[in-house]
Amino acid sequence: MGANRPRPGQRPNPGDRNSNGKEQHVINERIRAREVRLVGDNVEPGIYPIEKARRIAEDLELDLVEITAQADPPVCRIIDYQKFLYQQKKRQKEQKQKAAKVVVKEIRFGPQTDDHDYNFKLKHAIGFLKEGSKVKAYVFFRGRSILFKEQGEVLLLRFANDLEEYGRLESMPVLEGKRMTIMMAPLKPGAKKAAPKDAPKDAPKEKAPKPEKSENAD
Q: pTM here?
């Protein structure tokens, strides 16, 4: 009784293990409690002797899985354990894909960048945002050019405004040492840029006043 009893057509499973080699769940014959509390949709909730709980799971061709070992008695659920593991791994994979490292592309300006250079870099930034990368744009102040920091801020805000159809501004220009920086994140497919909260709404057209009805004299 030291190993799990597999169902017909199922390979013996000694238990799933985490990265440390320890079993994540105690199932079937590995559950040592004398009685357990069953929960779930496919059983009558309540406290059962362990033998009866295992028998119910076997009759349903499912597994008895301990989900709360610290409770008294331990709480168990009868489920298809292999299906549970598959769904769990699928969710972990999806979460890992969502948490994939974000690529950040850098665009560098000088405080007095001319229009030709500006448009060239703007075109590159649009391409980066379309491919799903973030864009970190910064103005580098060399020597006495730090005197033009206001001009650099205007340039970065213009840059963010020109990219509003492709990305959203994550932060206003920030001066860090000799760099003034903004970060643009790509818009999700189909997303539309939200209108500013203080944007005036279209005023309804005024209707012409209706003529007053004249009262007929008796």
A: 0.44
